[in-house]
Amino acid sequence: MSLNSYDEWSPLREVIVGSARNYTSHERELSFDLFFHDNITRSEWYYPRLTAVGDRRDGPVRPSRQSIKQRYVDELNEDVDGIARTLESLSVKVHRPLDVDSATAEVSTPAWSASVVPPLNVRDNTLILGDEIIETPPMVRSRYFETQFLTPVFAEYFRRGAKWTVMPRPLMTDASFDLSYASASVGGPTEPIADPKTSPYDVGFEMMFDGAQVLRLGRDLVVNISTANHALAVDWLERHLEGRFRIHRVHRLSDSHIDSMVLALRPGLLLVRSEAVRDQLPEPLRTWDVIVPPPPEANNFPHYDDDDLVLTSLFIDLNVLSVGPDTVLVNDACPELIRTLEKHRFTVVPVRHRHRRLFGGGFHCFTLDTVREGGPEDYFS
Fold first, then answer.
1. Looking at residue 155, which CATH number applies to its domain?
2. Which long-range contacts (CB under 8 A, 24 or more apart) does 278-285 make?
């Protein structure tokens, strides 16, 4: 089938499910800590400065790689494969990215080097709008080349007629990042984020943006902006999409992603973290009905050791995936959310996903819907 995806709820026909093969560690450096700023709960804030190219008097500054216990990775792989099988059982064609080869440990650019993580949260670095694939400018250095692992899938859609666009790639020196959100946030770092290292490749703030910052509603896109990096990328999107889509900006709904704050389950109905979220949305969406599930129970989550790095809030399981306007994939560890959706006459498909808090994503994050039946409808008029 040809690429076609305009919203979050129309009947799903084809999807990419991420891969977690050879996931070994998290790399604690500036871009990682900024990305997970709202949810890193450890008492220390590790912020290694990049050593400027050509200035090695003190030796290169290496980021801290925090290893992940192998049993968590094994269980994650089991669960991701289970997501794929469940979608196939619902008559959805599932595509998978290339796996990261175990020998691929690091990538380098003229400005920095970083470890490589697998293409697990495939929602992040790609935005599907209608018949166009848009690779977005990454926010985390270790994910800089992540869309390369989706190349075989994207190339096949291109052969079938899809447009394929890559947004400008950032140099990602320390000076590229707008630090204002993290600096102003309550509960931020114990070490002030200031005085980043200079680099000969500094160009000031650059575009950095994830597809998961966008709520797709036919012709309309609700986009979360928390930094100057996001705003630059949305400026680019507005010019690129002019006449095809309307962009509605919301500001600092979260640090970046919108899909554990609000998801559209079908026209006129939103799943939101709280009533306060609706008040921050564009005026047309404030008239939609909302489902506010009860707060998640702590015992819905595995217990982790002190040295395990928790990357998401307790609300990660709001990150559901709609297979159709009446059918939703939900974590089987969330009976409160399941009961709430069933009361609203949804068919809930429970699927196991244990370690979502360690790997930064739920079902919506781990998937990229490429073919849905819906079109560029106008739900705002």
1. 3.75.10.10
2. 280/250, 280/253, 281/222, 281/250, 282/222, 282/248, 282/250, 282/380, 284/220, 284/379, 284/380, 285/222
Report pLDDT for 102.
85
Answer whether 118's CB lies under 8 Å from 22's CB: yes
Residue 283 lies inside a defined structural domain of this protein = no
Q: How far apart are CA 14 and CA 7, in angstroms?
A: 13
This model's pTM is above 0.85? yes
State how many domains the chain has. 1
Contacts of residue 291, defined as CB under 8 A and 6 or more positions apart, other chains included, come to: 265, 269, 270, 271, 272, 340, 341, 344
Q: Rounded CA gap, 223 and 180, in Å?
A: 19
Contact 172, 148 (CB under 8 A): no
Domain span at 41:
12-206+296-372
User: 228: Cβ–Cβ under 8 A, 6 or more apart, which residues?
Assistant: 178, 180, 205
What contacts 363, CB < 8 A, 6 or more positions away? 83, 319, 320, 321, 329, 330, 331, 351, 353
pLDDT at 311: 81
Residue 173 domain-assigned (yes or no): yes
The pLDDT score that the predictor gives to residue 372 is 98
Residue showing tokens 């990419």: 16
Report the alpha-carbon distance of residue 211 to residue 233 in Å, rounded: 11
Q: Which pLDDT does position 40 carry in this prediction?
A: 63
* 269 phi/psi in degrees, rounded to 5: -140, 125
The pLDDT, as a whole number, for residue 53 is: 37
Per-residue confidence (pLDDT) for residue 161, from 0 to 100 = 98
H-helix or E-strand spanning residue 127: strand 126-129
The DSSP H or E segment spanning 234 is helix 228-241
DSSP 186-214: TT--SS----PPP-TT--SS-----GGGE
pLDDT of residue 56: 35
Flag whether 357 is in a domain.
yes
Q: What pLDDT, on a 0 to 100 scale, did the predictor assign at position 351? A: 97
Q: 26: which strand partners? A: 66
The tokens of 326 are what? 């009446």
Q: What is the mean pLDDT of each run of 10 residues along the chain (381 residues)?
A: 97 97 84 76 37 38 74 94 98 97 86 91 97 97 95 98 98 92 60 69 97 98 97 98 97 90 97 92 96 84 81 86 98 94 97 89 95 96 86
Q: Measuring CA to CA, which residue among 83, 90, 14 is closest to residue 351?
A: 83
Residue 229 falls within a domain, yes or no?
Answer: no
